[in-house]
């Protein structure tokens, strides 16, 4: 890539959908008709799938997510499709054995995924390195490791510089990206943070991914551009802005005026945007809009996609009016648990616990299994010690004994199949869904055979 060329990674289908439409907005039949057009835009890659989106397809739409990846990959042969993983979970937020993680990577590769991004909120380098090796052994072309961003007494520029240096030591990493799920970056922080990351990753390319929650992501992208970052994660309207990512059209426009050449076809990009606007109108889905700067995000740091889901969950239990109270509790719980970075799965852990605290009226009276697993270290180390009084409350609950002072078991796939009563006649694809979801969900998906290749 020349010095003045800029590349875009599209997140419309995965993160834009997840952030603005609660991941429930897009079915396969909505994606496939526009896939050949997307293939002609010239994106560096497409952030296409994650386990959250796959689970939504099964549960809400009764569609086979493996088949969705397969047919869309065939429809976009010229564009790299990527899949995201934390290395510790798959559909749901419980810890999974590494044998399952290995099988997931092999299976998405078989379906047409060529790029995998790895995110571990605990920055467990041993886990990151093992997952990267699994991806390469599965045949994945590009392995991208995330540097999840956060603000706390722990997460200084020096912290990220050291983590960037460690990530660069992974022999299987091809790309590094700064992942700002909460839209917390400011222009001033970009000026100090980007250079120290660049200094510590050597010749590895750096990409940037930031949400628009605080309204600053587009400005941060332009500042990062000046500092030498060449690849930016974007979405197309109506699935840009809001709690999603910056608009591809806006970034392309401003980059061009700054003297850069963006490797995308604007006319095709316009066509893609018009199509999704039509979907939004027909389905009654909201359009992402630029937002005013909101300082409250720097307190609770809830990512865009999770905020949308949190609003839906509270509304379902007639508690929508208590959102601000829950967000205040999120900030408190995060502090008490040692400032975990608010990205998947830790953001879900903290958000769920905060919601339980508010609804029950007594803090930590009820604790989710995910929090027990977090406290037990099943999801890596803690940035800071958990507050002693909170730790005492959690560990004194009867359920805690099932997790504390126990090593997480690592059975083989063969052993898990035997435990589940699933024989070799069940495909890996179906097995992974049954392992991660209820049999009822999977049975209903198979019975419905609902995947359609067109959208009326």
Detailed description of the structure:
With 456 residues, the protein is an alpha/beta fold. It is 48% helix and 10% strand. It folds into two domains: 6-283, Aldolase class I (TIM Barrel), CATH 3.20.20; 298-402, Cyclin A, domain 1, CATH 1.10.472.90. The chain has helices at 12-20, 28-31, 35-39, 51-61, 65-75, 98-111, 125-137, 157-168, 187-200, 217-226, 248-257, 266-283, 297-300, 304-316, 323-336, 346-360, 369-375, 388-395, 413-420, 428-436, 439-448; strands spanning 5-10, 45-50, 81-85, 115-118, 142-148, 175-180, 206-210, 231-234, 261-262. It has an eight-stranded parallel barrel, surrounded by six helices. Helix 10 (217-226) links the parallel strand 7 (206-210) and strand 8 (231-234).
| Beta-strand percentage range | 5-15%
Mean pLDDT: 93
Side-by-side strand order of the widest sheet: 1-2-3-4-5-6-7-8
**CATH superfamily grouping of the largest domain:** Aldolase class I
CATH topology of the largest domain: TIM Barrel
Order of helices and strands: EHHHEHHEHEHEHEHEHEHEHHHHHHHHHH
* Total individual domains: 2
Ranges with pLDDT <50 over ≥5 residues? Answer: none
The radius of gyration is 21 Å
Distance between the termini: 40 Å
CATH architecture descriptor name of the largest domain: Alpha-Beta Barrel
Question: Any idea what the shape is?
Answer: globular
